[in-house]
Amino acid sequence: MENLIGLLVAAPLLGAGLLLCGGPRLDRAGHWIGTLLAAVSFALGAVLFADLLGRGREDRTLTSHLFSWVPVGGFRADVGFQLDQLSMTFVLLITGVGTLIHLYSVGYMEHDERRRRFFGYLNLFLAAMLLLVLADNYLLLYVGWEGVGLASYLLIGFWQHKPSAATAAKKAFLVNRVGDMGLSIAIMLMFTTFGTFAFGPVLAHATDAGEGRLTAIGLMLLLAACGKSAQVPLQSWLGDAMEGPTPVSALIHAATMVTAGVYLITRSGAIFNAAPDAQTAVVTVGAVTLLFGAIVGCAKDDIKKALAGSTMSQIGYMILAAGLGPVGYVFAIMHLVTHGFFKAGLFLGAGSVMHGMNDEVDMRRYGGLRTYMPVTFVTFGLGYLAIIGFPGLSGFFSKDKIIEAAFAKGGTEGWILGGAALLGAAITAYYMTRVMVLTFFGEKRWQPDAEGNAPHPHESPRTMTIPMVVLAFGSVFAGGLFSINDTFLKWLEPVTGHAEGNSPVSALTVTIGTMVVLVLGVALAWAQYGRRPVPVTAPRGNLLTRAARRDLLQDDFNHVVLVRGGEHLTRSLVYADHTLVDGVVNGTAASVGGLSGRMRRLQNGYARSYAVSMFGGAAVLIAATLLMRAV
Amino acid sequence: MSHAAFVHSLWTMSADPPKKIPAPHIEYAQLSPTLIVLGAAVLGILVEAFLPRRLRHPVQLLLSAVGLVAGFAAVIALAAGGYGTGKAHIAAMGAVAVDGPALFLQGTILLVSLIAVFTFAERRLDPAAHGKRVDSFAAQGSAVPGGAAEQAAVKAGFTTTEVFPVALFAVAGMLVFPAANDLLTLFIALEVFSLPLYVLCGLARRQRLLSQESAVKYFLLGAFSSAFLLFGVALLYGYAGTVTYAGIADVVNGTVRTVDPALASTTGNDALLLIGGALVLMGLLFKVGAVPFHMWTPDVYQGAPTPVTGFMAAATKVAAFGALLRLLYVVLPGLRWDWRPVMWGVAIVTMLVGAIVAVTQTDVKRLLAYSSIAHAGFILAGVIAVSPDGVSSVLFYLAAYSFVTLGAFAVVTLVRDAGGEATHLSKWAGLGRRSPLVAAVFAVFLLAFAGIPLTSGFTGKFAVFKAAAQGGATPLVIVGVLSSAIAAFFYIRVIVLMFFSEPKADGPTVAVPSALTSTAIAVGVAVTLVLGVAPQYFLDLAGQAGVFVR
Predict the structure, then answer these.
(1) Model's pTM, two decimal places?
(2) Contacts of A305 (CB under 8 A, 6+ apart)
C-alpha cells in the first residue's frame, strides 16, 4: 500500500513531463492525457483512503522512504512520504477538485492554441502540491512549496501576451519569494535546533526547545503561510493573480494552493502550541485578513476579483482557526475542505459566465443571466448559499465552528476575535449577495464591445457544467456529512489533537448571532442592488469604497514603503558600492598595476643587472641563513 | 735527508705494491632510463653524420620518440619491480638514487619530453620556404642572422635536425638531476642538461637576434649560477669531508664516526655548512626560476623558439624541483630550522613578484614566463611543508603543471601572422570569434594555471596549499591564495580578450597544425581535465612515490 503514495505523485508528474516535452504531436490528445493522469491520481488516493479507513484510528499513518537525497556527514535529507489523515484529506481535495477542474478546462480552453502546455502546467501543479502535502520532512515540503509557486507563476502568466498577465505573474512570484524566505529560514532554524527536519522528530521534540526558538520558527512559518495563502501583509498578489485562466483561479488560487499556509501551520501544530506568542501573531493575521479580504470583496466590480477578495477572507478564517491551537485545527481544515468545494464551484461558475459573455468580467455589465444559464445559475447559487453559511449547507457548519472557537479563546481576545469573525460573516453575506444579484438578477446590462460584438449569453458545454454540478453537491452536503456525529473531528483528531474550548457564549447563541448578521448582510445588499437599477459605470462612492476598490491601498502602501524605500536603499547601496567597495577594489587593482609597472622596470634586459640581482640575492640568502642560526 | 736517500724513498714508494682501485659496481638495469636516452642521443649524432638531409627529420623524430618511449617503459618496469618503494636504494656507487620520487619525476620528464619532441618536429605552421616545409628552428644555427650564408641555407631548405639529439642529451641530464645522490653528480647533471638548452634557445628561425640574445643571457647567467653552486659544493665538502648526500647528512646530524684527518680543521664547521648549503640552494633556485634568481626567465622564454620554451618551462622545472626536494629532504633535514624561514621568504617573494609583474605584461610568452615564476612560488610552498604530503603534493603539481605549460606554449605556436608567431596580446583580441576551438583550448590551460576547479591546476594547488597549511605554513598559504587571486586576473583577462573583444581586421591567423602539435595539445588538455576531474589515482601514485631513499 505504501508504494502507492509515490505513484500518487508520479502520475501527474509523468503527465507534466509528457505534455511539456512531448511536442506538438500530443496537441490533439494532450488535454485528455492530463485529465486521465489526474483521475488516476485521484483513484489511487481513493484506494489509499479506503485502506486508511480499514485501519484502527491510531494506525492510520503510512510512510514510504524512497531514497536518501542529500547524505553529507551529519546532514541528512531524505525523500520520503508520510500519509496520515491530514495529508489524506488534502490528497482527496487536491486530486478530486483537480480532476474536476481538468475536465472543466477541456471545455474552457478549447480554443486556446497552447492547451497542451496548459494541461502540462496543471499536472505539474498537482504533482508539486501532492509532494507538498505528502512529504515527511520540511525540506521535501519546501520542494513542493516551490514547485506550486512555479506552477502558479506559469499559470497566472499563461496568457503572457497580455502585459497585465505577465506583470501579475511576476508580482505573485516576487511576493511569494518573501514568504519562501520565511520557510527556508524556518527550516534552517529547525535544523540548528533539532538537527533534522523530519516531521516525526521535530514535532515530537518541539517542547524540548526554548520558547524563544519556537517563537522564531513559528513566526517564520507564519511568514511563509502569509505569502502562499495571501494573508496580510503579503496579500497583494492574489487579486492580480486572477489574470490567469479561470480554472487556474479555481484550482490554485481558491481551492488548493492558497490553503498551503493553513496546512503548514496545522502540520506544525506542535511548534505553535508551545509558542503562544507566535499563535497570537497567527490569529491576528487571520482576523485582519478576513476583514480585509471581505471589505475588498465588497467594492470590486470584476467578478473574479470579488471572489479573490472572498478567498482571502475565507483563508483568513482558516488561519484564525489554526492560530487558536487544538481548539481550531480541525475546523480550519474542515472549512478548508468545504471552501475548496464551494469556492471552486463559484469560480467555475464565474468562468462559465465569462465564457458565455465574451470574457466580460465586469459584473455591472451582467444582469439577469439566470434564464440564459440555468445550470450555472443553480450551481453558483448553491455555492453562494454555502459560502454565506445558509443553514444546512457546507459553509454553515464549518464557519460556525470557527466563530465559536474564536469566542472560546476567552477573555478580551476571545471577544475581539469572535466579533471580527462575526462581522466577517455579515460582510460575506453582503458581498456575495451583491455578486449574485449583479450577475443573475435585475436588468440585462450587457452591451456590444468595442468591435461591436454583442454577447450572446449561453450555457456552457457539458465538460464545464458537469464539474460545476459535482462541486455543487460538495458545497451542499460536505459540511453536513462532516459534522453529523463529528465524523471529520474523529477522523482528524489523532493527527491534530483537539480540545473543547471554553466559550463564554453558548453555541446556540453564536449560531443565532450568525443567522442575524447573515440576514442583515443579505438584506442590505438586496436593498442596494436588487431594488434599485444598477448603473453600468460605477459611481464614485465614498472614501472607504474608493479605498476598497484600490484593494485598501495595498499597492499604494507597498509602492511608498517598499518600492520607494527599496529604491532609496538600492541607490544608497549602489552609491556605497561605487565609492567604498569599488574604491577599495579599484584602488587595490590600481596599486597592484602600479607596482607591477614599477617592478617591471627592474627587468631592463641587461644581463649585468640580472647578474647583480642574483649576486644580491645570494648574499641575502646567505645572510638570512646565518641570521637564522644566530637567533 | 741526503739526496740518495730521497731518491731511494721515491724508489721504495713506487716499488710498493699499487693499491687496487676497485672496479665500480654499476647497476646498469636500474640506470636504464637515462642510458637509453643517452644512447638514442648518441645515435642521433650518428644520424646527423651519416644520413642524407632529407631522411634526417623523420629518422630523428622516430629515434627520439622510440628512445623516450623506451626510457619511459624502463621507468615503468623499474617502478613495477618495486624500485619505487621497497627496493629503493642508491645505485652506481652512491651517485644515483633509484627511489619513488626519482622514478616519478623521471617518468614525468620522459612523457613531457616526448610531447615536446612532437612540437619540435612540427613542420606545417611556417609557410613553406622555397617549396620545403620548415620547422621552428633556424636553417643553419651557425649562419649570421641576415647574412648571405643564412639566405643560402634557407634557400637550400636546410633544417637544424640536430635539435633532436641535443634535446635528448638535455633530457638525459634532467633524468639524472632529481636522482643525483651526491653533489658532483648533481653538478654534472646540471651542466649536462643546461648546455644543450643554451644551444636550443639560440636556434629560432624567426627573430634570430632575439633568440641568440636570449641564449647568451641564459648561458651567462647560468654559468654564473653554476659557479655559485660549485662553490657551495666545495664548502660543503669542506664541512663534511664527503660529497654524498648521506654522508653530509650524517655530519649534520652528528652521527658520523671517522673524520678525514686532512679536513679535521673544517669538518663540522657550521659556517661552511650554512653558506655552502645556501649557495647550492641558490643554484637550484636559479633553475626553478625563483625570485630573485628569476630575471633570466622572461627574456629567455620570450626569445627561445616556442617549442623549446615549452620543453624548458615544463621539463626543467620538474627536474630542478626534484633536485631541490632531494637536497632539502635528504641532506638538510637536520637544518630545517635554518633553511625553512629563508625558503618561506623566497616562496612569498616569488609568488608575489611573479603574479604582480605578470599583470602588466603585453606579450603572451612573457606573460607565461611570469606565470611560471608565480607557479614556482606555489610549488615552493609545498616543498617547505617538510612532510610526505609535501613531497607527494609537489610531485603531483609538477606532473600537472608541466602538461599545462607544454600545451599552452604549443597553442602559442599556432597563432601567427606575417612575422611568425603573433605573441603580442593585442593581436589575440577576438581570437575566440575566429577560432573558437583554439581559443577554448587555450582558455582551458589558462583556467588550469589559475587553479579553477575541474582542472589539474586546482587539484595541484589545493594539494600543495593543504600540505603547506598542515606543515604550519598558514601565512604562506594566505599569501599564496592572494597571489592566486592576482594571477587569476591576468589569466582571465586573456580569456576576456579572446572571447569578448572584437577581432582586429589585421589579426593573426591560426595555422592548422599537423597531427604532431595536435597530439601535443590534445594530450595537454586530456591530462589537464583528467587530473582535474578524477585525480585520485594520480594523487595516490604521487603519495606512494613520496619517500626518498637515504
Answers:
(1) 0.67
(2) A239, A242, A361
